[in-house]
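Open question from group meeting: does this chain pack into something compact, or does most of it stay loose? Before anyone orders reagents, we agreed to write out a predicted structure and look at it together. Recording both the input and the output here so the notebook holds the full record.
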Amino acid sequence: MKPERTINQKMVEAALIMKQINGEMIQTVPDNVDLKHVYCANFTNSVIDGITADMFCCDLIRGDGRELSNQSGSAPKFNSIVSSASMAVSTFAPWKNRLSELSIDLGSQQLTGFNKLEFEHIARTAIPRAKKHPNLDVWLESDNAILAIECKFCEFLSKRDKKASLNPSYKRLATEQKMDSPWVKAIDVVTNKNGISKYQFFDAVQIIRHYFGVLNSGQKEKHLLYLYWHPENKDWMNIHPYGTHLMELREFSELVSKATDVQFHYMSINELWEQWYLSSNSQVKDHLKEIKKKYSIKINNHSPKKGATNVKRIR
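Structure tokens returned:
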């Protein structure tokens, strides 16, 4: 039986490093590549060319995700070569000065006419005395709609031994307010008695928290979009864990598909980039060329023969 093909975070990091060196989109990476987590020299190197600190720094400092704070013995999270926050900034920051031109096709509908764009937006829930509230990677608003976006790069490429649990205060709030949303009903379907998600790779607990934050954000039409990255391999859906992650997403989406208070959507960020790449606007095309130069890679697995020397640790 042919072994299952797998791509993990270390392989993605190695492929991105090699692309910076040789400029090639297709990279062959050993299955057991051994390297430490890779950080860029500073946060401006974490994003694509053309993005300046004034486009995102204030937003990240206001958020409580501590993206630009130095961790103990490590660089800021934002400097990671696989930072979802820096990928979100690279994707959306160039639109800040021309929001009226931004259009996002969600499949069921197309959202346009945005007049607000914020990174690391704190979406405050209605939970009394809550010490922490959900942080959304991207927050977009128009006169009549909100689009809250959660971005994932490599977070789901490894199964977590210890998963976050949904605080009981969320279900308590739903009970007290007699909420009848499909989102509330989904909690008991996708989490166990301890509030831990049944899914291996899709973080349903985080998305449910986001729902409560978005729900409490005013009277506008509300959308919550989950964007995830994948390599450019044509068969990426057959590579583990991308296929399982996608199946979990589809199942969860079906559970909340009838919700009208907050509408849930998901797509790959690659698909969103392709939407924009069709634009005839030269600025948009230049933006997408930089995106593809940084993030578009095709990863071929290479299993070293028995007895072969392992790849040296990259520091």
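Observations to bring back to the group:
The longest strand covers residues 114-122.
The beta strands are 26-30, 104-105, 110-111, 114-122, 135-142, 145-152, 221-228, 263-268, 298-302.
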